[in-house]
Amino acid sequence: MRSVCCGILAFCFLDGFVWAGSDEAIERIGFGSCYKPEKSTEIWSAVKKFEPQLWLWLGDNFYNDWVDGKYVRFNDDPKAFAKGYDSLRQSQGMAALQQLMPDRVMATWDDHDFGKNDAGKEYARKEEARKAFVAFWGSPDRADGVYSAKDWGPAGKCVRVIMLDLRYQRDPLPKKGEPKSSGDMLGEMQWKWLKDELSKPGADLVLIGSSVQFVAEMHRFEKWANFPKCKARMLKLIHDTGARGVIFLSGDRHNGEISCQKGSEAGYPIYDFTSSGLTEVSSIREEENPDRIGSLVNGQNFGVIQINWSLADPMITGELRRSDGDQGESVSFPLSQLAPRKP
């Protein structure tokens, strides 16, 4: 089934909606972030060669605060979001994904497609942004953000994808020199919804789309560690709901890396695969992250999750692939590793 929205195929994940092919076992998942649709890149050829069965947009899917090649602090153009999504609609990336699997795309946003760099709930145009997101992606029309979830695959091979909204209800960031904030990123309605999603039976693997990094804490940019009570609440929620197989997927940084918090309060190691960006590249070549596996991946990249369901203990492989398709970093582990240890 396909829905038409704004002249293109929309990707609907409304509660109860049955997706085409949703009972097929998902073995190949691609994800990425930080994409300027007006830029051409060979990375989409590499994505098509990988042939993902599901693609996840992790935010900064266009840059609302980038106009005519220049950064603007606040874009007050009344047609800004329409222009941004029109650019994405006509982009090389969207064309590639529609050729692969137009009914198998999920999305959340980050600050730039939300509308303003580092913005949260104080952003003056957030409701305009929310309506434009819902209209384009066909996501649930929630009053408090653009979060969504969907189960993919049959019983015993079920992947639950949870896409968080870390913008619409996020408290202001602490200013330079101030202590880390005790504020929140999700809002109470989203926390309640998330508890329900993590508590539901049936998921063998849970992928949480988080626009900013969950594990990495040492850098000075946006991250869950800026809201330590919020991060601790997430780990406790995973533990208390008994959710198994939770992995975070993140973007934002214009660099890629694989991180793992081994002694987490969730009761098992928490992996965070950061893929950024599809077109945007940071000048930072190295930075401290004691939880990193391997090296920082510079340059354009996209993320890959592969699942070998044929094994008695399914094997999970997470990779960061460069624009030419070559592997940047990779890690594999059995799914049983992501389960609370018995007392």
Topology, please?
Elements: E1 3-5, E2 8-10, E3 28-32, H1 43-50, E4 54-57, E5 66-67, E6 70-71, H2 80-89, H3 92-100, E7 105-107, H4 111-114, H5 126-137, E8 148-152, E9 159-163, H6 188-199, E10 205-210, H7 228-241, E11 246-250, E12 256-261, E13 270-274, E14 292-297, E15 301-308, E16 315-322, E17 327-334
Parallel strand pairs: 3-4, 4-7, 9-10, 10-11, 11-13
Antiparallel strand pairs: 1-2, 3-15, 5-6, 8-9, 12-13, 12-14, 15-16, 16-17
Give a summary of the structure in a few sentences.
Helix content is 20%, strand content 24%. It is built from seven helices and 17 strands. It has a single domain (3-337), classed as 4-Layer Sandwich (Purple Acid Phosphatase, chain A, domain 2), CATH 3.60.21.70.
How is this structure best described in words?
The chain is built from seven helices and 17 strands. The protein is an alpha/beta fold and 343 residues long. It has one domain: Purple Acid Phosphatase, chain A, domain 2. A hairpin with a 6-residue loop joins strand 8 and strand 9 (159-163). Helix 1 (43-50) packs parallel to helix 3 (92-100). The longest helix is centred in the C-terminal third of the chain and has 14 residues, at 228-241. It is globular and about 55 Å long.
For this structure, what is the CATH class?
Answer: Alpha Beta
Intertermini distance: 46 Å
Number of helices: 7
The average pLDDT score comes to 92
Which outline best applies? globular
Class of secondary structure makeup: alpha/beta
| CATH fold node name | Purple Acid Phosphatase, chain A, domain 2
The CATH architecture is 4-Layer Sandwich
Strand content: 15-25%
